[in-house]
Amino acid sequence: MKFRIPFLLALVALASGCASQRIGPEATFVDTDDQREPPLKVSAAFRPDLCSPQVGHLSFSVQNPHNNWKLMKNIQLLYPYASQNPKAFEVLGGDRLLAWADAIERKNQRKDHNADLARLAAFTLSGALLLNNNEDNRRTGAGLAVAVASAEEASSITQSAAAASKPAGDNSNHLLTGEKSIPPGMDRTFWVLLNAQPDAPLMGWIGVRYQDEQGDNHEFVAPLPQYQKQCSWQQERVRFLQSWALKQGMIDYRDISENNIRLSPVQIEEAYQQQLRLSDSN
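The structure corresponding to this sequence follows.
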């Protein structure tokens, strides 16, 4: 009986910390032949720990299900609603990329320091309770120590899984630098760093166009998971969309206060873009 809680916490930590080749919904190829026999299996997702209000770190997991080597070259990104706002997104590079890396490093250093202080406070409290003469307090202290240790272990496992599934990357696996080779039956992860203007459409999907080893053209669209709950990327846009939806009667204040909005931000963005197209046509 006394081992049940630690055992359960360990199971939760392991279940939530599994690394995976598939990091988001599977991408759909545009061409009919590619849909019947996809040349690659692709998924994409943002890394919440590497995002800021205007900058997002986007990972692509690319798996080669075939017996021959696959090549991606002349890669282009295709953004949502680009015809409405062609300069809404840009890929960061050069000095801006270095500046972002420096800022992220300092942010994570502060985060780690604050987490260490919180763990120290929790261990200090649990130690004081363990030394207490009251039996209930001692049990509470023991439980707190186990919980803190398990939470620390779970955090470590989760971070390790995230790094394995969506590595931060370097120049060798930047999506837009040079040709990308994918070995038979294996997968690789690529990345780009994107900057979004404050009025940029919500990025609910990303498109990619490329040429293969034969020079044939391919294009796919990868839906992006609902990263908004864990990431500050494009939160200003989310607030704008919710305000617009309130005025349109699509949602109400109670939905927002109870966090029970029926429509996702991506669906609201689609409705907003449709209204823009209707306004432009009149």
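The CA atoms of residues 171 and 177 lie 7 Å apart.
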